[in-house]
Amino acid sequence: MIYGMYFCMNVVTEREGYASAVLLRAVEPVRGITGKTSGPGLLCNAMGIDRQINGHDLLSDDLFIAAPEHEEKFRIVKGPRIGVDYAKHWARRHLRFTLAGNAYVSRK
Predict the structure, then answer these.
(1) Residue 108: what pLDDT?
(2) Alpha helices (H) in the chain, listed in sequence order
(3) pLDDT value of residue 75
(4) Residue 45: its pLDDT value, please?
(5) Are 27 and 42 in contact (CB under 8 A)?
(6) What is the CA radius of gyration of the chain?
(7) What is the pLDDT along the chain (108 residues), one digit of tens a residue?
(8) Adjacent-strand bridge partners of 100
(9) Residues whose CB is less than 8 angstroms from the CB of residue 42 and which lie 6 or more positions away in sequence, other chains included
(10) What secondary structure letter does DSSP report for 66?
(11) How confident is the model at residue 8, as a pLDDT?
(12) In Å, how far are 17, 53, 106 from 99, measured between CA atoms?
């Protein structure tokens, strides 16, 4: 939860005790999702994600990350992080990765 009012979803990609998580900033709805998904809080709201799912295993049957049904060509671009001015020099580091031209990417 950020700012005491928005839930965010991180995907942890390594074993416990090893820092390696990715903040999901936006998703392109495929099916079953209504509402805006172009920001971390908006995406959690649209998907009904809250504190109850903390620690959820993304290899389960009820909430998971799946490969797309059809492979599409895309280009990943990187840029500075947004909304983290308090992070000083880390705010300007190019640690934000998005799909070039995707309409569901949160503000630039």
Answers:
(1) 57
(2) 40-47
(3) 95
(4) 93
(5) no
(6) 15
(7) 888 888 999 999 888 888 888 888 888 887 888 889 988 899 999 999 999 988 888 888 888 888 888 888 999 999 888 778 888 888 888 988 888 988 888 765
(8) none
(9) 26, 35, 36, 106
(10) -
(11) 92
(12) 29, 26, 11
Integer Cα distance of 80 and 97 in angstroms = 9
Q: Taking a C-beta distance cutoff of 8 angstroms, is the pair 26, 38 a contact?
A: yes
Q: How far apart are CA 12 and CA 38, in angstroms?
A: 21
Task: Provide the CA 58 distance to its chain's centre, in angstroms.
Answer: 14
- Tokens for 58, please give them: 């993304």
Per-position DSSP letters for 19-36, written without gaps between them:
--EEEE------SS--S-
How far out from the chain centre does Cα 9 lie?
6
CA–CA–CA angle 35, 38, 39 (5° rounding): 110
Interatomic CA distance for residues 87 and 82, integer angstroms: 10
